[in-house]
Amino acid sequence: MVSHKEFVGAGKTPGLQVWRIENLDLKPVPKALHGSFYTGDAYLLLFTTSAPSYNIHMWLGDECSQDESGAVAIFATQLDDFLGGGPVQYREVQNFESNTLVGYFRSGIKYQKGGVASGFQHVVTNDMNVKRLLHIKGRRAIRATEVDMSWSNFNKGDCFIIDLGKDVYQWCGSQCNRFERLKASQVAIDIRDNERNGRAKLHMVEEGEEPAAVIEALGPKSTIAPGTDDEKVDTSNRKKGALYMISDASGAMKVSAVAPSSPFKQAMLSAEECYILDNGVDRNIFVWKGPKANMSERKAAMSAGQQFIKDKGYSNKTQIQVLPAGAETTLFKQFFIDWKDKDETTGPSKAYTIGRIAKVEQVPFDVGLFENGAMAPVDPSAYGHFYGGDCYLILYSYRLGGREQHIIYTWQGLRCSQDELAASAFLTVKLDDSMGGSPVQVRVTQGQEPPHLMSLFAGKPMIIHSGGTSSKGGQSQTSSTRLFHIRQSSSRATRAVEVEASASSLNTNDVFVLKSPKAVFVWRGMGASDEEMAAAKHVVGFLGGSAAQVSERKEPGGYDFWSALGGKKDYQTSKSLQNVVRLPRLFGCSNKTGRLAVEEVPGDFNQSDLATDDVMILDTWDQIFLWVGNDANAVERNGAPKIAKDYVDSDPSGRRGLPITTIKQGAEPPTFAGWFQAWDPKMWETDPLARVFGRV
Q1: Where is the Gelsolin-like domain (predicted)?
Q2: Which among 500, 521, 522 is positioned nearest to 510, based on CA atoms?
Q3: I need a labelling partner for 42 at 20 to 30 A (CA). Which of 259, 441, 531, 692 fits?
Q4: Percent helix, percent strand, percent coil in the chain, to nearest 5
Q5: Rounded to 10 degrees, what is the CA torsion of 525, 530, 534, 537?
Q6: What is the pLDDT of residue 477?
Q7: Cβ pair 134, 146 in contact under 8 A
Q8: What is the rounded distance in angstroms from the CA atom of residue 283 to the CA atom of residue 313?
């Protein structure tokens, strides 16, 4: 087996690793610059979960050479071999990336001009001599594309970032709506925190109110063009698929038809063969590798998919996913009417992918708490506990290629003060300076914790307290009754979040720990996992006392579980959570571009992905929810029900007659809110844009 020296550290810790093809070799991209791609280059990406399981992506820029695209394909195959043939492989093309890849970069993907051949390097520096213009596109999948510094590239319907090094200006067109402004601000904050190591200043600029520095950089302002109607790809993949078998029995790779159109039956897939599921009309091709197929067929899976695209005359922008048995994605499984996973015990909030077990080394790290504008060390016994009224700094160190590397996480609670927010930003820069400016900086807002941060605490869950502080002498009195919601994410990291102590907060898919003045309960929902129950022990250990285990529908009487929660109330009890492994999917319905379009939210979604100026579709497999934002316009409100019906009627798995429930913002029932961990009913009381810029 051929093994590259860069593979030595591949897949050893959860999270993302990125390499660029340079002179037909692999060169690692600094973590602070992940999500930034040169359009003239090719990249190899590896995402590792805590399980561990793996996703391999080869990304091709519009202007990358044939040699570079060939080299990244070879390295992807070698990396797949190195990881035992278990990873899911993706072929990604600029501007047409999979939702899986886009989901890694919550603050968006940035495309930069040039590449290796032009002498452009991925280097994190404190150099403020920057001058560039980024065009921000997308409401769910955010893409920031570098364009020429000219007013001729602006339009009234989009946001642009004028990056002048020490000052970063977010320019908003007069036709740009609040949600697009919110998403563009994530890109601007990412530039400040990661590319400038927190040293740049952000400015919000409205069209017609440009400051002198912007006029000086761009020259005299010319007429701004009106907003444009984006070319939209229907990412819901509703169209039919066809199934083919791949065989090299004759000595050459051949493709033969198995079924002309979906829905398919799982029995059509033989463990001894490899198959292509053709969804090319929606720019998707899936190659499924049977566990007993011969080695030559398995290794040729990606190249067989590429040849299939050519033979069919499909666009070269078509995505390819190569799937080993047991690691099938939601997009693949949706074409089968009777799909059953190997271990169907928990619900669709769990993503099951099978990877070989590898030891993930836990490296010592330090946690600091901000008190009165200064940093105080946190007792190691309290590692993993985060209070909503505090800000924390976590310094994580690891060795890569024989050198010590560092990541600084700055965690900001939702109830911390403006002074603490300012102090956290200042002290993060100060710590970075003391270490020579080399650490990667990651700013984390409560509820948005990345998988790597959640996995740091030696097998214990990350425990998030709704408010209060851990500073000495500053603790506020905690409530006499407290409820913690425990859920394992799709990357297998576990988080315990304090929620309102009410029965309506419960969820049949998860575990909850309830502490009242008289008792401690561990409540296990019918769809909960053993890992979530194990995490509950750590929460009980912190709260103190001996816990009584309570199973859903077998709650005790007397002064019981329900009394402590203020009585029985409706909560999320969808039966689909208990028996079928199906990931829920969230879509936005928007006519902001002039026509009603549907776009899927990439990655693990959360409550903040509900755009208040849109109508959203939540597909939980046995039910469809239509969520209507308060600021959605009449076209979206009136057109969304038909889109939801069309979505079901054209479903490739053959689902029909599903109930469609319409819900208005601010009146979400438990059956809807339960699909979002730690749902906050008070979130809508403050403007999301004000929340973001209040934290800048």
Answers
A1: 26-101, 142-214, 258-332, 375-454, 494-536, 598-672
A2: 522
A3: 441
A4: 25, 30, 45
A5: 30
A6: 66
A7: yes
A8: 11
- Is the separation of the CB atoms in 412 and 447 below 8 Å? no
Q: Do 253 and 234 touch, CB atoms closer than 8 A?
A: no
As a whole number, mean pLDDT of residues 558-581 equals 72
The one-letter code for the residue type at 306 is Q
Asked if residues 94 and 60 have their Cβ atoms less than 8 Å apart, the reply is: yes
Q: Which positions ≥6 away from 399 have C-beta within 8 Å?
A: 363, 405
Burial 328-342 (b: 16+ CB within 10 A, else e): bbbbbbbbbeebebe
Q: What is the pLDDT of residues 505-549, one digit of tens each?
A: 999 889 999 999 989 999 999 889 899 999 999 999 999 889 999
Classify each residue of 522-533 as buried b or exposed e, where b means 16 or more C-beta atoms within 10 Å of its C-beta.
bbbbbbbbebbe
Instruction: Report CA-CA distances (Å) from 670 to 506, 572, 627, 680, 682.
Output: 8, 5, 13, 12, 15
Quote the percentage of the chain above a pLDDT of 70: 85
User: Under a CB-based contact definition with an 8 Å cutoff, are residues 291 and 297 in contact?
Assistant: no
DSSP E strands in 318-452: the ranges are 319-324, 365-371, 374-377, 385-387, 391-400, 403-412, 440-445
Rounded-to-integer distance, Cα 60 and Cα 115, Å:
12
- Sheet with strand 660-664: strands edge to edge: 597-600, 585-590, 615-619, 624-628, 660-664
Torsion of CA 261, 263, 268, 269, to 10 degrees: 100
- The CA angle 640-613-204, to the nearest 5 degrees, is 150
Q: Give a three-class secondary structure readout of 490-552.
A: CCCCEEEEEECCCHHHCECCCEEEEECCCCEEEEECCCCCHHHHHHHHHHHHHHCCCEEEEEC
Tens digits of per-residue pLDDT, 195-243? 887 888 999 999 999 999 999 999 999 999 988 755 443 334 345 789 9
Tokens of 575: 């039966």
Inter-CA distances, 124 with 21, 32, 195, 417, 523, Å: 18, 7, 6, 30, 47
Tokens encoding 305: 């998919």
Position with higher pLDDT, 233 vs 491:
491
347, 353, 354, 356: CA torsion to nearest 10 = -130
3-class state of residue 572 by DSSP: strand
Cα–Cα distances (Å) from 509 to 481, 485, 568, 626, 678, in that order, read 22, 11, 18, 21, 13
d(Cα 598, Cα 590) in Å, to the nearest integer?
A: 7
Q: Are 82 and 3 in contact (CB under 8 A)?
A: yes
Question: What is the length of the chain?
Answer: 696
Mean pLDDT of the chain: 83
Check: CB of residue 184 under 8 Å from CB of residue 168. no
